[in-house]
Amino acid sequence: MASPPPPPPKLPVPGRRNVLITSALPYVNNVPHLGNIIGCVLSADVFARYCRLRGYNVIYICGTDEYGTATETKAMEEKCSPKEICDKYHAIHYEVYKWFDIKFDKFGRTSSPQQTEVCQAIFQKLMENNWLTENTMQQLYCDTCQRFLADRLVEGKCPTEGCNYEAARGDQCENCSKLLNPTELIDPKCKVCKNTPRIRDTDHLFLELPLLKDKLVDYINETSVAGMWSQNAIQATNAWLKEGLKSRCITRDLKWGVPVPHEKYKDKVFYVWFDAPIGYVSITASYTPDWEKWWKDPDNVELFQFMGKDNVPFHTVMFPSTLLGTGEKWTMMKTISVTEYLNYEAGKFSKSHGIGVFGNDAKDTNIPPEVWRYYLLTNRPEVSDTLFTWADLQAKLNSELLNNLGNFINRVLSFVAKPAGAGYDSIIPDAPNAESHPLTVALAEKTNKWVEQYLEAMEKVKLKQGLKSAMAISSDGNAYLQESQFWKLYKEDPASCAVVMKTSVGLVYLLACLLEPFMPSFSNEVLRQLNLSPEESLSLCDDKGESAKAKRPWDFVPAGHKIGKPSPLFKELKDEEVEFFRNKFAGSQAERSSKARADADAKKVADQLKGTKLSEGGPKKEQKKQSGGSKSKNAEVDVSVAKLDIRVGLIKKAEKHPDADSLYVEEIDVGEAAPRTVVSGLVKFIPLEEMQNRKVCVLCNLKPVAMRGIKSHAMVLAASNEDHTKVELVEPPESAAVGERVTFAGYSGEPEASLNAKSKTWEKLSADLHSNGELVACYRDVPFTTSAGVCKVKTIGNGEIR
What we know:
The protein has 23 helices and 31 strands.
């Protein structure tokens, strides 16, 4: 069956409240983490859902920011084109937000024809109005890469006094948030080749912010008051104005971006700070060809914008200046909602460093999206930085959602669903005397105050306060049930019990409405259990008198209505699960990924060694069984060990594998004309500096095999303790000559060895090659040394014995 066609695009309606909502466009070079989600798309989604609940005519616009240096850099890293990067990560962002129940009217992209059209049209207006100037600027040029380096292709020490962050980007310091020019960095380096660039002259176009200052200040002074800007937005904006506005370059020496429609600058593109905010307009243009009805009607449209604090200057200074400079009547931002940083456990969330829980990680935990939404919104960093911890998530879920909200709803609906004689057989009872029931009247008064506080907070975009007010109704509901002792009233005072239960069912419905912006899947499930349609039921419109019903909660659900089947709404998060998640998401994504790959590589080696067969060259032949039974195990080992060509080698050079975080690539001299290239899975066990210029034991008669694109021509021997938590290289005696062969002292059925701590030599020696590839050996009857403890020698590598 074909899916129904999408609804027609919404347009502003005269006489109604028309609300245009945007959230900062997430950059497309990575997976969004929880800090990004709460700072932008989730907060805007909550407000958009609230506006729909209130009956406002609203559209929510967002999309991926796809042009600029970061995309080019990511494309270089992943060895593909910028468009392929954008296609890949746009799809990832879309799926993450879909899982989080983010409901956009349009989730678009800035790499669109509409972006080029709108951006170039605004540029032409700025040119006509003489707000742009040409200037020569000094820019870093990399002779190795033969290109001018855009801001994000340069890293160095932050020049800001008191900061001195070692990895500041050329456009902004991640540590202190100060905007920078690449030439200001101390000891700058090219991110591609790591060499030091030099300064060269290049011509660019600039937006003259100082000339636009008067228009901008008038706009800020008027709108920041009328739009009730958050305090952190006002402070960040005033700091920029106090520092003094400077001309800002709007072009860049890049290929991936909106081309500049000017003959002299046709080989340049617009700088991402200039074109990215225009993405709000172009994505609306891809939503409806009548986009100007939203963006050029300030008298009838209110613009609300959501973002993290590092984005404030672009939205309160640069983008407004750009629009003001066109001389056209744009819908300017009325209200800006800004979040501080959400930190993770002991440090900051970071996309660039992979720190924290990312959108796809949240999905993999099997913790439902409504729990994630609730926790992030209760922890929303509205006035100061807040901290995500697994223990706090557990406490919020178990205490507030499970024991408070879930418990209240389940107690009410389960009692109503009980068969007649114990409950109401799923039918809502009548309660004609509710207004004369003192306990219920007192509850209604408190509920109405909470709803008024909720509406006031949400209108001011105080989302955390709005959520707190809604949850207070649940707490009052639990207290109401306890104080009424409804289970006794059912037998002793049926009329009062009917009042309590009908009122409580009304509170359940009210909670589903108030919490829908915060936890939509939760609200849908509550309405399903109430046997009510979400499309028809969820509304708090003033013109329909629905918000006023809070004064009479017993009127929300009519008597005689049959509810659905109640079931628990939340599941407890146990201590062992919290500990598991804390360990699983410790460190950076790269470290977690490296560990996973290392484990996978180690398993691959072990699996392949299980099938390793020894041969003396030529086709491998299956050994025939001797008459009278198989060979003894020791006899089989004796033959195997004789075929192992183990030599003393010297590592001349060792470096990280370019395409595998868990592997080293070594050049090892084994006494031949040229060193052998060897790939070893030792990264997580032995530091790189300890791999340099040292003697090792090398198994040389291996069939070469490619390891992540590099062919390995031998195998290094290492030793591990019994549980393989510690691994060290096995070292031959200092007197051993490079290239000399290793011989064996003796054999036993099971490899075993103990370490003499004083001499650090093996006392018991054996040689064996079983399916697990473990052996113990010595050189010229002198034991190998190691400090790994009681351990076995293990081959670390890949391939077949030849």
